[in-house]
Amino acid sequence: MVLSGKYNVVNCGGKTSIVVNLLNNLYSSLLPVIQDANSNSPSPAYKAFFKDPSYAPHVSTLFTNITTGIPLTSPATFSFNGAAALFCVTAPEQFVYNYNGRRDAYTDCLANPRTSSYYPRFDPPRQYIVLCPSFFTSNIVSLPPPNNCLTVNTAINRFHGNGQSLWLYKMWILLLMITHYYLYTSVQNLTITDTIDANKCFRLAAAQSVLNANNYVYYAASVYGHCNDFPTSPADGRGTLEIDVGDPSDDGPDVAGPAVFTGIATDLEIGVVNTTGVP
């Protein structure tokens, strides 16, 4: 186990430096995002993904917590300080838990090669983030290039590709997982939304958007990329209900209401021996 700030990087072996480097870059990338959220005049990115300026202190606090890695949970195995633990699974029986039956994180990762990471919602402990082998072995790039923005099809007032191009970068994937941790530990499981499509995130009401982890990532990526191209808000007279018939990734009209998590994982068993000397 290695500490990166307050974050616990667990069982990552020779990949540890990759995770630490991502955390360091995430820290520097979020500083202008925090500054943007604290601005007296909401930016186009903030208005696109959070809408109501009254939520800006909450948004700023969450990103500040991420930069410092402030612990919001009690100490647990491989998390002696109570902070988030980024756990690399490299073999069966290292991270086993119960969720509708016995689940092995490594087996689940291999069953879906597109899954590079996930956040199992425990009650408690709540601080574990699983990094799958594909997080390191796939062609996902570590850092997004400058001025990397989602693009808008102005003819139908939608983001191209539902905004999924952001998930080609490890830094944004890691931000999503850590945001899940801070949202879940702050407001608990059953009130958190799980809307992924950027167009649907854009349509969430302000009170829902601040409970949706993907909104934080889309916002941070937009500030990071100095982006100013967003769909026109329904409040300005235009909706985002059209289907992009030329884009096979467009899954049809948006649903305004969010998906909601209803499950809680239990009975965690960690099959990795701590040989680091760190409690």
From TrEMBL:
InterPro entries listed in its UniProt record: MetalloPept_cat_dom_sf
Gene Ontology terms, MF aspect: metallopeptidase activity
Name of the protein this chain belongs to: Uncharacterized protein
Organism, scientific name: Imshaugia aleurites
